[in-house]
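User: I'm new to structure prediction. If I give you an amino acid sequence, what do you actually give back? Let's try with this one:
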Amino acid sequence: MALETATIQEKLSQQFGANVLNFEMSRDIFSFEATSDKVHEVIQFLKEQEDLNFHFLTDLCGVHFPDNEESHQFQVVYHMHNWIENVRIRIKTFLNGSNPEVATATDLFLTANWMERETFDFYGINFIGHPQLKRILNMDEMVSHPMRKEFPMEDQGRTDKDDRFFGRTPSNC
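Assistant: Good question. You get back a string of structure tokens that encode the predicted 3D arrangement of the chain. For your 173 residues, that looks like this:
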């Protein structure tokens, strides 16, 4: 019997109640949100339930929404895969903008190690309990997190280009 999205939603809702919400099919992937304090338990439940079998963490990444309210300025997105039924799901959790932190998933999936380090490096999201949370791609001396929207896209002191050639004038920059 194929694993249905309704079954996944029902099991999650029974186990976690209001801590899982906004279930939807988005671009052929079943997606939902989990509260940041329960997302680790949700991922563990999806992995350990024999009839769900989400044993593979495909991806983990961060997103920055600076225009959202303070409690929803950062998001961590997890993609998991059930190889037996060939079903993929997306789990999203929102984090506070002033102190973006969430529990690590490295105790559940070793592959989360480098993905969490990359997310920390580029977004400054703290993964509580991570065994070695430090920069992975940028220099250790770097004080900013370059994928945050407040990080400038390019060096403002460049003299080798003219913004007019890129459709940008001082009035619309």
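You can read the tokens as a compact description of the fold. Here is one thing that stands out. The beta strands are 20-26, 29-34, 56-64, 74-82, 87-95, 101-103, 126-128.
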